[in-house]
Amino acid sequence: GEKHRLSAEIERIVQGHLKYKYEDVSDGWDLIHQEGEMKVYRREVEENGLVLDPMKIFHTIKGVTGHEICHYFWEFQYRMEWETTLDSTKIIEVLDPQTVVFYQVHKRVWPAAQRDSCFWSHIRSFTSSDEDQPTWLVVNYTTSHLLAPIKSPQVRIVANVALICETVINEPPLNPKDIKRENIECKLTYVAFVNPGGWVPSAALRSVAKREYPRFLKRFSSYVLEQTRDKPILF
Ligand SMILES: O=S(=O)(CCO)c1ccc(-c2ccc(C3CCCC3)c([C@H]3C[C@H]3c3ccccn3)c2)cc1
After folding, report:
1. Are 213 and 76 in contact (CB under 8 A)?
2. 223 with 190: CB under 8 angstroms?
3. For the CA atoms of the chain, what is the radius of gyration?
4. Residue 45 carries which DSSP code?
5. Residue 163: how many CB atoms within 10 A of its CB?
6. Burial annotation 8-22 (CB, 10 A radius, 16+ → b, else e)
């Protein structure tokens, strides 16, 4: 598609996530939460007293495709229906049909100061040779923007988040037209590198993150299931 000022950075960040995705979580990652198909891993990383803990979540959602998951995660108009940790969100620039810049104000996490964020958000699919279903992904990556000035007392977070989804078709019927929702499932990898942008008590931030990431992914998954239940499958 048309190139723009962020094209090179987007390519670099997307390729980086695809490289990391296959990195196994055995060394240095702790399994901190398991719930059904969801496995939540965290690496404990601090930088001059600031908790930067990368998060990595694996989840399998039966009855939806990776395209549907990425569609509802990326499309702006659904965000406030599943995102419960935001006070506001708005698009401030559309760079191409797969890339927008949005500005968000996050709900305050006491005792920390209120956070806000400005991300480019990019959605894309690609088919690797051996897979029959395309992989879909969304990346949200912090960017500065004239329409999102940093103003005190809000603290700007720095984040790099990716949602990478593969679609599995179990017992595929002879005719692909006969594929039903009970034959499909989405295997997703969610990674989040969030720098709080300013000091937050380590223990408080760790317990909020441990509680909020699984909660957010659970709520988002249920939202997509209910939105797609009686709709034709979006492959
Ligand atoms: O997947 S996304 O791209 C969806 C975009 O709408 C995404 C999700 C979460 C965050 C985020 C932002 C701020 C915080 C902290 C930092 C200091 C105080 C708040 C946290 C930590 C606390 C964890 C958390 C996890 C999930 C939801 C909310 N809270 C997470 C950013 C982007």
Report:
1. no
2. no
3. 18
4. -
5. 25
6. eebeebbeebeeeee
How many Cβ atoms sit within 10 Å of the Cβ of residue 153?
Answer: 7
3-state secondary structure 47-105: ECCEECCCEEEEEEEECCCHHHHHHHHHCHHHHHHHCCCEEEEEEEEEEECCEEEEEEE
Q: Is 140 in the pocket of ligand 1 (CB under 6 A)?
A: yes
Instruction: For residues 226 and 235, give the distance between their C-alpha atoms in angstroms, rounded to a whole number.
Output: 17
Please check the confidence at residue 154 and state whether its pLDDT lies above 90: yes
Residue type, 51: V
- pLDDT, one tens digit per residue, over 17-46 is 999 877 888 889 999 999 999 999 999 999
Nearest atom in ligand 1 to the alpha carbon of residue 121 is 3
Tell me the backbone φ, ψ of residue 64, rounded to 5 degrees: -135, 160
Task: Confirm or reject: Cβ of 156 under 6 Å from ligand 1.
Answer: no
Which residues, listed in sequence order, are joined to residue 89 by a DSSP beta bridge? 104
What is the pLDDT at residue 110?
84
CB 142 near ligand 1, within 6 Å: no
pLDDT digits (tens, 9 = 90+) for 97-114: 999 999 999 999 888 999
Residue of 234, 228, 46 lying closest to 136 (CA atoms): 234
Helix (H) or strand (E) holding 11, with range, is helix 7-21
State which H helix or E strand residue 186 sits in.
strand 184-195
194 CB near ligand 1 (under 6 Å): yes
Whether pLDDT at 131 is above 80: no
Q: What ipTM goes with this model?
A: 0.98
User: Whole-model pTM?
Assistant: 0.97
